[in-house]
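ingest -> validate -> predict -> emit
validate: passed (alphabet ok, no gaps, 617 aa)
predict: started
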Amino acid sequence: RSPRFREMVLPSSELPLRVRGRDVVGSSTGAPVQLACVNWYGSHMEYMVPGGLAQRSLADMAKTIVGLLFNCVRLPFSLDILAAPSNSSSAFAALLAANPELLGRTPLEIFDATVAALTDVGLLVVLNNHVSSGGWCCGDTDGEGLWFTKQYSEDVWVDALGSVTARYRNNSRVVGFDLRNEVRTSELGAPTWGSGATGTDWARAAARAAQRVVAEDADMLVIISGLDYSMFLCGVRHRPLHLEDGLAGRTLYTAHEYSWYHSDLGAYRMVADWIICVYFLGLTVVCSCLFVCCFSRRRFLGVSSGWDVLRSTKLVAPAITSSALFLVSLVVGDYFPSTCSRRRDIWKLCWLYLFPFCMMSLMLWACLLFEACRRVRQIAAAVEPTSKIHVGPVIGRQSSGEKSPTQAREVHIVAPGEGGRGGGGGGGSGHESEGEDVEPMEQQHLVVHAKGRQIAKLTLSLAPLLLTLAVLLGILAFRQRALGYEAFAAELDARWGFLLVESPATTAPSSSSAAVSPAMAAATAAVAAAERSAAVAPVWLGEFGTDADDRWWGHMLRYIRERRVSFAYWPINGEKRPGEPEGFGLLKEDYVTVKQPWKLRELQSLIEIDGRGVGAP
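emit:
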C-alpha cells in the first residue's frame, strides 16, 4: 500500500463523519475530511455487477484504487439488484471470469462482496441509488428522471433505501448514502424543490427518504441531489433540508458537472461564443478583400485615395454601426438568462436572438466590399497604362509667369496629350501649365505637404478604422468576460457553490460595545450561528469527467481547488459494457493501465494531505 495512501486513510476513531458548516469533519478531532472519490459503476446496469470483474479480482481492483490515491468510492446500484436471483448463464459467468468464487451468488451478494473488498483496504464507500430499473443513465425519456417510476413507487423506493442502509449498518466505512442520481424531468412530471406537490416535490421526498436512512443508521451521512441532472441547488435557499430535525449535522448536497452542463445563461454564452467565432471569421475575410481591393493598387490610387473610395460608398458608417449593434446585442442578452434554470429550447432562442444581428452586420460589410471594388474597377479602367503618375507635391521650372520654386504643386495623373490640368485624386489643388511635362530630373525635387494638413487628413481617414477596431475589441472583451474562469466560477456559485461561501452577515458580532449584556451577546451569537447554518452546507461534486484537457477541464480543476470541494470522478471503469470502451474512464479496458496519465496527475493534485496535493512532487 502506498505510503501516501496510508496518510490519507481515515482512522476509525474519526468515524462516523459529521457535517459542520461547509465541511464534512471527523467525529473525534473535528478536522475537515476530504472525500476524494472515484465512481465504480456496473451494479446499476442491466448486467448488475461492477465493471472489470472479468479482468481483475475484487481484491486487485481495491488495491488499484488505493494505488491511484483515492480514499473513497461511490458505488451506484439499481433497485433491481435487491430482488434479482442468481444467474448461472454463460454470459453472466463471463462477467465474473476473474472472480470464480462469486459464481452462483445473487447480484446483491456480489455488491456485498464489492463493498467488503473496498472497506477492507481502508477505502470509504458512498452508496448511490442510481436508477430503479437496471440500465444506463441518464436521459429525459428513460423513465428514470424522478425518484419513482412506473415499476417502483415512492414507498417502495423509500423502503429499499432503508433496507440497503440497514444492510451495511455495521460497516463503519460505508459513510454515506447518495439518495438518488440526477433528478430530472420524466414522463411522470417535472421535479420541483419545496412546492409541496406530492408527485413532484423532490425536497419533500428527499427529506422523507433521508429520515428513513437516518432511522436505520444514525451514523450514515445523507447526500441529496440537486435538480435537473444535479445541476441546480438554488431551491436550498428556500427549503434547507440540512436544518430539518434529525438531518442537521449529517446532511450534505451533491452536484454534477460536465462540459455540456449549462444554465440558461451558460447556454447563451456558449452560443455567443460560436456566433462570435463565425462573425470574426466572416469579418476577417471581408476586411482582407477590402485591403486588397483598395490599398494594394497604389499605382492607380494611393493610400489616401483608397480611404476616399471607401468613404464615397456611403456604407462605412452603416457597417461600423452594425458591428456596434452586434456588440450591444451581446451585452444586453447577457443580462436576461437565468443561472437557476435550463430551458429545453434555450439553445434555439439564443440562436434566434443573436444570429440575425451577426448576419445583418456581415451583409453590410459585404455590401461595402462589393461597392468599393466596383468603384475601384471604374477608376482603374479610366486610367491608361502609359499615364505618368505622381502622388505628392512637385516643383515646376522657373520662368516668367511660373510659380516660385518654393510653391509646391501636386500632380496626380497626367495623361499623354492632356492639357495641363492636374488630377484631384489626392485632394491636391496644384496644376500643370499647358503642354508641360515633368522631366526626370525634377522628380528629385519632391517635397512634402505641410505636416499639419497631412496629420489632419490622416486622422480623418483613419477614424473609421479606429472605430471599427474599438468595436471589435469590445466584442473580444465580451467573449473573454463571458468565457473566462471568472464567468465559469460565477455560474457554478449561482447554481450550487453559494452553499460553500459564508456570507459576511454570518460573522460573529463585535464585542467593542460595553453596553451589550452577556445574555444579549449570547442571543446575537445564536442568531448568527443559525444564519450561518442556513446559508452554508457542504456540496460534494458526485460526478464530473472528461476525455479532453481543454478549457472546461482547467476551469473545473481550478474551481475544485479554490472552493475546496470534495469530489468523485466519473469513472474508473475501462468499459461501459463488455467490449464497449468508456470514454471518460481512468483505466483502459484491461483495468490495469491508466488511460490518460495527465488526467490522473491532475486529479491527484486535488487530493490534499495537510493542504498539499498528493500528486505534487
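The first strand starts at residue 18 and ends at 20.
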